[in-house]
Design brief:
Two copies of one chain form a homodimer. By secondary structure, chain A is of the alpha/beta class. Chain A has nine helices and seven strands. Chain A has two domains: about 50 residues, Orthogonal Bundle (Helicase, Ruva Protein, domain 3), CATH 1.10.8.420; about 100 residues, Dna Topoisomerase Vi A Subunit, Chain: A, domain 2. The complex binds zinc ion (2 copies). The site of one zinc ion has 8 residues of chain A, from helix 4. Chains A, B: InterPro entries: DNA_Rcmb_RecR (IPR000093), Rcmb_RecR (IPR023627), Rcmb_RecR_Znf (IPR015967), TOPRIM_dom (IPR006171), TOPRIM_RecR (IPR034137).
């Protein structure tokens, strides 16, 4: 009903998380009707992000430099390594302000039924990361879901318990809860009361 | 905390309607982490839309051609002109399938307190549109809000009641309701039972 280029724009906007047909249409109308400069800005920001943002060699977070600012910061405690499932979880922990160690960001969790194995989520890279590092404590901050627990278990089976202290976020994380939806205070508490496993 | 290009992307996404900081972050992460091809597609779709989509000379809806497909369709009834406040309202009526006439799309409604006068919403263009046309019935489909009613009243004061039959959508439109949120059936009924004013 609208022009083909409008339809294509709506279609592309629908690719954004939790954007359905109606919302995508409203977004496209808003961009064309009231915010053409904002739309141009968005297109430029996407292209710049795609071209300029890669992954940190060390922790795999998005980074514009080979090593991200967190990994490059020598005020961070390199003896602690916090393992998370996603950049969103990384962000949630960073924003809590309760953690001063380093990170390793997996690409999700193990899910054998979906054919997602250790290689798909970066576990070999994690093992390399651990091999040549001063890490003493591994903080398993995967989600408190069945898959998150299974992923943590899989990793724990493969690290030397004599060499590393392995901890898990405390019970403050609700069962089935995803880290990215937790408030900073709950996350802070869960980090502070983390326990050995 | 994230890289500057990521922050810029989040900022640009926040310009979309009803997208706050948290949602924008999730969108940016999704695009970079899981959907780089979709992100590139979105950037291209935005640029193509901005470059290729203008306004129909006749009704002012978004169009890739000087005259839009609706205005160019000689199966539509050129004696009826439906006046709406926005492309979204236009879309809602088109999707109801209940209307076969033509349109004129205003840029919103009059709002003297915000300094929005007749010239800002396209009323002079509407008068030109009426001047050289076979229009017999003007259907005022502005929103059932105070501003929508005031806009309809302003236009009605300026068209010759001897020359045009002027109608308004029937009471099916709830008071304070915005057209774009109505279901197609309610809109169909409101159109069918429109009344002379
Ligand atoms: Zn890093
Ligand atoms: Zn037109």
């Amino acid at each position: 009903m609208f022009s083909p280029k409008f339809v294509a724009l709506v279609q592309a906007l629908r690719g954004l998380p939790s954007v359905g047909q109606k919302t995508a249409q409203r977004m496209a109308l808003q961009l064309l009707e009231h915010d053409r400069e904002g739309a141009a800005q968005l297109a430029r920001a996407i292209v710049a992000a795609l071209e300029g943002i890669g992954r940190c060699e060390s922790c795999r977070i998005f980074s514009e430099t080979p090593v991200c600012p967190v990994c490059a910061d020598n005020h961070r405690d390199a003896t602690q390594l916090c393992i998370v499932e996603s950049p969103t979880d990384w962000l949630a922990i960073e924003q809590s302000g309760a953690y001063q160690g380093l990170y390793f960001i997996l690409s999700g969790h193990l899910s054998p039924l979906d054919g997602i194995g250790p290689e798909d989520i970066g576990i070999p890279e994690l093992m390399n990361r651990l091999a040549n590092s001063p890490v003493e404590e591994i903080i398993m901050a995967t989600s408190a879901t069945i898959e998150g627990e299974a992923t943590a278990g899989y990793i724990m089976d493969r690290v030397d318990p004599a060499r590393y202290k392995v901890t898990r976020l405390a019970q403050g994380v609700p069962m089935g809860g995803e880290l990215e939806y937790l408030d900073a205070q709950t996350l802070s508490l869960a980090l502070k009361s983390r326990r050995s496993v």
